[in-house]
Design brief:
single chain
Length: 440
């Protein structure tokens, strides 16, 4: 096992040829759906076309900066970062409470900025890894990884496949099946030796997306009007030029609490990555990762967008390609930054058929869940451990199918917490592990 860790640590530091870096980076880029959170937010708070475009562009730019900084300078781990779903409810709440207008966004930015500074201070204290070691035991780690996979599966169905837009649900299902089948075939071919096997393994995601795109084109028309009308180069929004930064005490406190919930979500991604790459989350790596995330979220706030978090869905691509180089993620960051300066490129990413992305999303989610199941093989499962896993799995599934009306009827803070099944399951696993007495 020690030799395996040394090998995978080498794979994380391995430098690949430019062509492989770009292909692998594109796969991670296309899978991460960086535009989803800003599109949802823009729709909920009623931004106009110009405001929506600015938010999407800023989110791509912040995502790229975060991914690049973490991969190259701070955590130095193969993780991609994008806008988190966790604070959506809180952001909408702050926006509406402050008047629901252009000025209200200034308070959202101020709250996000204050929360990011709190995360930097936590990282600089060098206490986060020690807290993590106390709270996240092997059964908690395995439960979190399993719940990440389980939580992502219904999201792929409800948000990407079982939706009607330019295509019917039946057409989306066909596109998803073709995409999944192509990815599996590429993975099988990828196990073979030789150049063909290498190309199939490394390019499996891109090849699958192309197959899904072609299938979608055959089944219907893909609307390219948004791409043709978008400008090639455009600057992002800038603080004090395009928006102000204002602070409100309750908004700041709310966002600081939400940042700690967001950290639970991100830690889940780090744990899943650690499991997949068979490397240790050592103290230096974790504390650097917290500082890096805090600094990145200061930057995302100054760009006028929402907090960044590690994306669990991309962990499955690591397993499928068996390529763990952190340098690939520097390229992901650079590509995201380039897109952040181009409305045309961000529009192009946004028109990739959701069902094609959903197909890959489903497969990688299943792989993550399987990794969690494998982690339980190393754990002595007593009644305590069984209750922890059972309750958290129930939450991971139940919160994804919770009626929206019921969620909205709960107190606002409960809505913030329960809005992310991954964060809620992770927090529940930690709490139950401390509260339930050991059966041994």
């Amino acid at each position: 096992m020690e030799n395996m860790k040394k090998d995978t640590e080498f794979m994380i530091e391995e430098k690949l040829p430019l062509s492989k870096n770009i292909v692998l980076a594109c796969q991670h880029l296309f899978l991460m759906n960086a535009y989803v959170v800003p599109v949802i937010l823009a729709s909920i708070i009623g931004l106009d076309e110009q405001g929506s475009s600015a938010l999407i562009q800023a989110t791509f730019l912040a995502s790229g900066i975060t991914t690049l900084l973490q991969a190259k300078f701070f955590m130095k781990y193969p993780v991609v970062y994008g806008a988190s779903f966790v604070p959506i409810g809180a952001i909408v709440g702050i926006y509406m409470i402050q008047g629901g207008n252009t000025s209200a966004w200034s308070y959202v930015v101020g709250a996000c900025l204050a929360g990011a500074i709190a995360i930097i201070l936590l990282g600089l204290s060098k206490k986060f890894k020690k807290i993590l070691d106390v709270l996240v035991t092997p059964v908690v780690s395995a439960t979190i990884v399993l719940c990440i996979g389980i939580s992502l599966i219904p999201l792929a169905f409800s948000s990407m496949i079982f939706v009607e837009g330019g295509f019917s649900v039946q057409q989306n299902i066909i596109v998803a099946i073709v995409t999944i089948a192509t990815m599996i075939i590429c993975s099988i071919i990828g196990n073979k030796a030789g150049k063909v096997g290498t190309v199939a393994r490394i390019g499996s995601g891109i090849i699958a997306l192309i197959a899904g795109y072609i299938t979608a084109s055959c089944l219907g028309t893909i609307d390219l009007s948004s791409v043709s009308s978008a400008s090639l180069l455009s600057r992002p929004a800038l603080p004090f030029l395009d928006f102000d930064i204002k602070f409100d005490f309750l908004s700041v406190i709310t966002m600081i609490v939400l940042y700690f919930v967001l950290m639970t979500e991100t830690v889940g991604t780090w744990i899943a990555t650690s499991c997949t790459t068979e490397t240790e989350l050592n103290e230096k790596r974790v504390n650097n990762g917290v500082v890096g995330l805090g600094i990145s979220n200061v930057i995302s706030s100054l760009l006028g967008t929402t907090p960044m978090s590690g994306y669990s869905s991309n962990v499955g691509i690591l397993a499928l390609t068996n390529t763990f180089s952190r340098h690939v993620f520097s390229y992901v960051g650079v590509l995201l930054i380039i897109i952040g300066f181009s409305s045309k490129l961000s529009s192009f990413i946004a028109i990739i058929p959701s069902a094609a992305v959903g197909g890959i999303f489903l497969l990688t989610s299943g792989i993550i869940a399987s990794a969690g199941i494998n982690m339980f093989k190393q754990i002595n499962m007593g009644s305590k451990e069984t209750y922890i896993v059972s309750i958290c799995v129930i939450l991971a599934i139940g919160l994804n199918i919770l009626p929206q009306g019921l969620l909205e009827s709960l107190p606002v803070f409960a809505q913030y917490i329960l809005g992310s099944s991954i964060a809620t399951s992770a927090l529940t696993a930690i709490l139950l592990n401390k509260l339930i007495p050991s059966s041994n």
